[in-house]
Amino acid sequence: MFPAMNRYRAALTHFVISALVVSTVFVLVYFLWYPEPLFRGAGGRDLFLVLAMVDVTVGPLITLIIFKPGKKGLKFDLATIAVLQLAALAYGTHVVFEARPVWVVFLKDRFDLVRANQVQDESRERAKAPFRSLSLTGPKIAAARIPEDPDEQFRTLITALAGVDVSSYPQHYVPYEEARGDVLGKARPIRELRELNPESGPEIDRILRNLGRGEGEVAFLPLRAGKSDLTVLVDARSGTVLQLVALRPWKY
Hints:
The structure is a single chain. By secondary structure, the protein is α+β, with helices and mostly antiparallel strands. It folds into 3 domains: 92 residues, no CATH class; 80 residues, no CATH class; 66 residues, no CATH class. The chain is 48% helix and 16% strand. The chain is built from 9 helices and 8 strands. Strands 1, 2, 3, 4, 5, 6, 7 and 8 form an 8-stranded mixed sheet that branches. A hairpin with a 5-residue loop joins β7 and β8. α1 packs parallel to α4 and α3 runs antiparallel to α4.
């Protein structure tokens, strides 16, 4: 068995196969679950790198150590490595999937990024139809209202103190169109974004050119994204969300 193989060639073959499999996962993570700038800002890159490093290095390394042509039980050993490696990859991919961003929610004076594992299941069952689903292709835009019922207000206040804000409760979501007036009332001019990112003037100019809008036609609001906060650019007249960008939205 494996007559032309030595341990180095076997480990290299294992590495190439592992890299191809991980590359497939990367396509899902980068292009569907964590589209830029969320790949970096929401921690998708860190999660994927841990997953990739473990899968691409550990399996081939073990193959390098144990592989010996003609060794009794070698086929079983390699099969066991493959099964364990696939199981680890499946678990890691599941973790990344469960942490994927599913909503960008306007709340009071900012946007919150909501991940699939942050959405409260009981609240999702009580939500209106558009807000019951969890996106598989990047986050959708919505707005959240502070509940009017005193008991519900108290409950959400308590959970907010524990880090679970109203934006994690889809039953309090409303279509983004209903909140555009509030968005425009809280949005800030691009000149303030320049002041917060003095080193990013050329990048801001490029973004505005790509949007086909002048500086006075665009405003911004902060986006709490987890690993690092991002910025939401909106149309200064309509409040329409134009783009998420990796720029500082406030002073740190």
